[in-house]
């Protein structure tokens, strides 16, 4: 057999190498190996697969002068290139021991070269820090490994003259074909990895696009209205045949194929859907019978059903349908799983936000309940004392008290700034009647301020009350309050300033509820409505006074509604 003929025969055996490479590229453990985070189990799998591939190379060998021209190096070197020196050497040992017991005058040298070449692949792995080893580096490693094998044969095979004759025949074919085989093997794996990354990128992009579109609807909770809009978005984005969303008992929405008979409000009948709700696990229906539609004309033939959870409790399902049987792909499955996770997370957030809102509102009502009895008692005493001596003023104070009480019962999320100011004026008019000349109130409002900008109710008044009670009341001679409203480029800045006795450090620590319930609640509401940039800023100096400032952004988001405001 001449060199060319041997080269052609060995080249034909590369088909086996390519097949094994393809199979290996589909193994889940390969992903962890390529990320260089393999478990011990992953390393053992790679070792035995690579060693087995080396043995397969021996079985496919061509006998030449009592020796074997083979492709054993491809398996063991790839083991080293993928798993490191230990994996490569161990795979080489498996293949090498098998080669040794096959026999022949090159048995020991070929067995030894398998271990050395596997270890050499591992050394390349150890020093290559740029990710998956490219094909040209793998080719160089295979080329060098086969040269080393020829040198080992010349060194250890006896008689030397036969070893020389053997190397003359097998050197060029084995160095050429096996180095190309190593390169092809790594190229196939690289292609498979890149394909998986493209699929993952497509999945992530689809999930992200859907997420951006469905989040506003998920904020409404899971009901027939929101489910219908969400299902339409998913259908348009993914291009599946139909999308359905259910709760635990009935269909909330079904859009696409079958929407003429899969109707919202109908009870759940599909066994796979009921299993998903019962077990909390993803269910796949690959056949029309598994979907279980009673309509004989229904074209839905396969589906993936993903349970929707809130705090680990299954509250419904998301279903993606296809018109062909057995057409649920890994991309469909992963996108459905990702969407279900988004549903669950967002529904939990909505629940927490609802609880937080109810908690804040309850605290606000509690604050109002504490304020009103004392304030009303003091206001009525003041009005009674004025009825005979200043009846007109007493009448005005009664009207202001009515304004105060009517306003405090409001339940709106936001009101115009001018309405909040009228409430403050009503409150201060009563307090000024009580304290007379000891309480002076001034307003400075820039002309460009638009007093129709929406603000949460009961925002400025607690700050004014805090200035009266904690700043001016302890001061024998009384003092002055200045309410200042300035127009900045992107916000309206509101401040309440007094020249009273100042407040303690504990009242300035707004993170502590015990530091002053009024200030704490105002600060929490501002954070919830506008974010951290609008929280209260308190500056206070003993004996000099206190200034409390906050911002109302001209463009901001309140819960469930985005407001854009420009003066």
Protein structure class: alpha+beta
Task: Give the strand order of the largest sheet, numbering strands 1, 2, ... along the chain.
Answer: 4-3-7-6-5
Q: Rg to the nearest angstrom?
A: 39 Å
> Shape from CA axes?
elongated
Q: What kind of oligomer do you see?
A: single chain
Mean of residue pLDDT values: 80
Number of strands: 16
Could you name the ranges where pLDDT drops below 50 across 5 or more consecutive residues?
A: 511-515, 557-567
How much β-strand is present in the residues? 15-25%
Distance between the termini: 93 Å
The biggest beta sheet reads: 5 strands, antiparallel
Count up the helices: 18
Helical amount: 55-70%
Protein name: histidine kinase
Pfam families: 5TM-5TMR_LYT (PF07694), HATPase_c (PF02518), His_kinase (PF06580)
GO cellular component, one term: plasma membrane
Domain Histidine kinase: 460-556
Word description of this protein:
One of its GO terms (biological process) is cell wall organization. Its EC number is 2.7.13.3. The protein is an alpha+beta fold and 567 residues long. The chain is 59% helix and 16% strand. The chain has 18 helices and 16 strands. It has helices spanning 3-12, 14-25, 28-34, 40-59, 72-83, 85-102, 107-127, 135-156, 160-218, 224-238, 271-279, 288-291, 330-386, 391-408, 417-435, 461-472, 505-508, 517-530, and strands at residues 62-64, 67-69, 242-247, 251-256, 283-285, 302-310, 313-322, 415-416, 439-445, 454-455, 479-487, 491-498, 537-541, 545-553, 555-558, 561-564. It has a five-stranded antiparallel β-sheet with strand order 4-3-7-6-5, with helices on both faces. A hairpin with a 3-residue loop joins strand 11 (479-487) and strand 12. Helix 6 (85-102) runs antiparallel to helix 7. The longest helix is centred in the middle third of the chain and has 59 residues, at 160-218. The radius of gyration is 39 Å and the shape is elongated. The model is unreliable at 511-515 and 557-567 (pLDDT under 50).
């Amino acid at each position: 057999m001449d060199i060319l003929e041997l080269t052609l025969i060995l080249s034909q055996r590369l088909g086996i190498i390519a097949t094994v490479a393809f199979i290996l590229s589909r193994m889940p453990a390969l992903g962890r190996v390529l990320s260089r985070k393999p478990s011990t189990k992953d390393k053992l799998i790679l070792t035995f697969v690579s060693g087995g591939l080396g043995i397969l190379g021996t079985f496919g060998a061509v006998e030449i002068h009592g020796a074997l021209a083979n492709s054993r190096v491809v398996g063991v070197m790839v083991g080293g290139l993928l798993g490191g020196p230990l994996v490569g050497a161990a795979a080489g040992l498996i293949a090498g021991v098998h080669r040794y017991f096959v026999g022949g005058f090159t048995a020991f040298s070929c067995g030894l070269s398998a271990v050395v070449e596997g270890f050499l692949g591992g050394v390349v792995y150890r020093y290559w820090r740029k990710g998956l080893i490219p094909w040209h580096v793998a080719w160089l490693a295979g080329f060098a490994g086969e040269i080393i094998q020829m040198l080992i044969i010349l060194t250890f095979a006896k008689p030397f003259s036969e070893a020389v004759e053997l190397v003359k025949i097998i050197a060029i074919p084995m160095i050429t074909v096996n180095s190309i085989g190593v390169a092809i093997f790594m190229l196939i794996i690289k292609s498979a990895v890149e394909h998986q990354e493209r699929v993952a990128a497509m999945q992530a992009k689809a999930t992200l696009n859907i997420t951006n579109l469905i989040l506003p609807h998920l904020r409404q909770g899971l009901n027939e209205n929101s489910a219908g809009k969400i299902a339409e978005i998913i259908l348009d984005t993914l291009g599946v045949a139909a999308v359905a969303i259910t709760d635990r008992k009935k269909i909330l929405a079904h859009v696409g194929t079958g929407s003429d008979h899969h109707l919202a409000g109908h009870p759940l009948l599909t066994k796979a859907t009921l299993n998903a709700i019962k077990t909390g696990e993803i269910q796949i229906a690959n056949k029309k019978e598994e979907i279980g539609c009673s309509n004989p004309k229904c074209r839905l033939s396969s589906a993936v059903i993903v349970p929707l959870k809130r705090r680990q409790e299954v509250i419904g399902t998301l279903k993606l349908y296809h018109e062909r049987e057995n057409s649920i792909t890994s991309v469909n499955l992963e996108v459905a799983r990702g969407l279900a996770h988004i549903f669950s997370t967002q529904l939990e957030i909505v629940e927490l936000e609802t609880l937080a809102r109810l908690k804040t509102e309850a605290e606000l009502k509690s604050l109002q309940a504490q304020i009103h009895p004392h304030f009303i008692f003091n206001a009525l005493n003041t009005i009674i004392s004025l009825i005979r001596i200043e009846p007109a003023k007493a009448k005005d104070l009664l009207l202001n008290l009515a304004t105060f009480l009517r306003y405090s019962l409001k339940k709106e999320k936001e009101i115009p700034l001018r309405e909040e100011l009228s409430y403050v004026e009503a409150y201060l008019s009563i307090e000024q009647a009580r304290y007379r000349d000891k309480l002076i109130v001034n307003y400075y409002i820039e002309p460009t301020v638009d007093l129709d900008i929406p603000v949460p109710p009961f925002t400025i008044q607690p700050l004014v009350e805090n200035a009266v009670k904690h700043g001016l009341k302890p001061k024998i001679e009384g003092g002055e309050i200045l309410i200042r409203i300035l127009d900045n480029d992107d916000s309206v800045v509101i401040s309440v300033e007094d020249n009273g006795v100042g407040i303690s450090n504990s009242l300035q620590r707004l993170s502590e509820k015990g530091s002053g319930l009024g200030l704490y609640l105002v600060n929490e509401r501002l954070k919830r409505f506008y974010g951290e940039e609008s929280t209260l800023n308190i500056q206070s100096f003993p004996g000099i006074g206190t200034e409390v400032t906050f911002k109302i952004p001209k463009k901001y988001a309140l819960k469930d509604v985005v407001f854009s405001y420009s003066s």
